Amino acid sequence: MASSSPSTGAHSSRDVGHAGYSSNPSPVPYREQPLVYEATGDCWCACKHKGARWISWSNNNPGRRYLKCQRSRVGGCDWFKWFDEPTTPFLRQLLVDLRNTVNKLRRENTRLRGVNADLEQGIEERNNQIHALRNVLRNMAEGGVQNKKGHTGQRTRMLLIIVPLAIFLIISIKLAG
User: Fold this and answer.
1) What are phi and psi of 21, to 5 degrees?
2) Is 54 within 8 Å of 65 (Cβ atoms)?
3) Widest Cα–Cα separation across the chain
4) Contact residues for 82 (Cβ-Cβ < 8 A; gap 6+)
5) How far apart are the first and last CA of the chain?
6) Membrane spanning segments where (predicted)?
7) Could you give the 3-state DSSP secondary structure of residue 153?
């Protein structure tokens, strides 16, 4: 276990606004809760609480676990201790690159979910338009039958205007999709 050191470089992904630290959430879920570990004599803070074990995702200490007062955010002490030894420069850079890639993919996933929602809404609107046009055509076709019974030719003239327009709209929608 590493020796105690000041809290520089020990911020978790929860800390925001510090140079060299990622404000993104942890790129991987915690495999165990912060208090689920066998505490030794040096895992207790000054206010006599078992230290919570967190994972740093800073650029200087990615993936490195540390202990911190479990009540530090609500009036506890500022006790801090590294739980793991530092990693090699190669592993450090590899973890930073992987963290950044995971966060980039999360942002892209969120963006694509928004695009997908917009497209689904557009499809629904177009389906409603097609349904309305089909109803108009059905009504006009029924009106055309009545024309054979001697009604005025106004419905037929409307049919000659709207049918090509509806076909044009349907083809345009199909080509746009």
Assistant:
1) -115, 145
2) yes
3) 102
4) 1, 2, 3, 4, 5, 10, 64, 65, 66, 67
5) 59
6) 158-176
7) coil
CA 14 – CA 66 distance, rounded (Å): 14
d(C-alpha 19, C-alpha 6), whole Å: 16
Cα distances (Å, whole numbers) of residue 154 to 22, 146, 151, 164, 165: 70, 11, 8, 16, 17
d(CA 64, CA 83): 8
Based on DSSP, count helices (H) and strands (E) in the chain, helices before strands. 2, 3
All residues at 6 or more sequence positions from 133 whose CB lies less than 8 Å from its CB, including other chains: 166, 169, 170
pLDDT (tens digit, 0 to 9) for every residue of the chain, 177 residues total? 444 333 333 334 343 333 444 455 788 777 777 787 777 777 788 888 888 889 999 999 999 999 999 888 888 888 899 999 999 999 999 999 999 999 999 999 999 999 999 999 999 998 898 888 888 888 777 765 444 555 556 666 677 778 878 887 888 787 776
Structure tokens at 66: 């540390």
Neighbours of 131 (CB within 10 A): 10
The tokens for 124 are 């629904």
Buried-state track 40-77, b at ≥16 Cβ within 10 A, e below 16 = eeebbbeeebebbbbbbbbbebbbbbbbbbbebeeebe
